[in-house]
């Protein structure tokens, strides 16, 4: 049970640290990955975005709506299916990418600082493996994760 406790503590405080870094952009640790993914894949559909994130569909819908209202993305109906929307970054989103990437790097550096140098590179692949395994156990089989900040 210590592992679950310390994963939770690390997650909570890493998000708080990242929230602080992203606040000047008007983003949070819950929003940044959407902006990065949409900037890297303009025209991605909401369904395709959902397939690439390990997040509940209602959270994706809510976050996309918030980011659209905040001026970070636009939704445009697909030509072949007017019920499906493609997501495009705005200029505001594109300009925010370097600062988002820096905030993520700074947060990862802070998170890993307590580990010996030789253990740092091993942590991310192990967490990715355990995260995918737990997602699969919960029925959240996803496409290969193309998203890495």
Task: Give a written overview of the molecule.
With 149 residues, this protein is mainly α. The chain contains six helices and three strands. The protein has a three-stranded antiparallel β-sheet. Helix 1 (2-22) crosses helix 5 (91-112) and helix 2 (32-40) packs across helix 5. The chain starts with a helix and ends in a 12-residue tail after the last helix.
Entry summary:
The protein is mainly alpha-helical and 149 residues long. Helices cover 62% and strands 8% of the residues. It has helices spanning 2-22, 32-40, 46-52, 57-69, 91-112, 117-137, and strands spanning 44-45, 73-77, 85-89.
Write the SSE topology.
Elements: H1 2-22, H2 32-40, E1 44-45, H3 46-52, H4 57-69, E2 73-77, E3 85-89, H5 91-112, H6 117-137
Antiparallel strand pairs: 1-3, 2-3
Helix pairs in contact: 1-5, 2-5
What do we call the CATH topology? Answer: Arc Repressor Mutant, subunit A
Oligomer: single chain
**Residue fraction in strands:** 5-15%
* Average pLDDT figure: 89
Kindly name the structural category: mainly alpha
* Unreliable sequence segments: none
Portion in helices? 55-70%
CATH architecture grouping: Orthogonal Bundle
Number of helical elements: 6
The separation of the N and C termini measures 29 Å
């Amino acid at each position: 049970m210590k592992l679950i406790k310390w994963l939770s503590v690390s997650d909570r405080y890493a998000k708080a640290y990242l929230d602080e870094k992203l606040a000047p952009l008007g983003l949070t640790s819950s929003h940044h990955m959407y902006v990065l993914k949409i900037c890297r894949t303009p025209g991605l559909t909401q369904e395709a975005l959902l397939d690439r994130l390990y997040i509940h569909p209602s959270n994706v819908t809510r976050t996309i709506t918030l980011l659209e209202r905040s001026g970070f993305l636009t939704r445009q109906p697909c030509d072949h299916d007017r019920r499906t929307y493609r997501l495009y970054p705005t200029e505001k989103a594109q300009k925010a990418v370097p600062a988002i990437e820096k905030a993520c790097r700074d947060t990862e550096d802070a998170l890993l600082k307590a580990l010996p140098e030789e253990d740092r590179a091993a942590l991310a692949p192990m967490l990715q493996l355990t995260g995918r395994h737990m997602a699969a156990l919960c029925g959240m089989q996803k496409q290969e994760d193309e998203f890495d900040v």
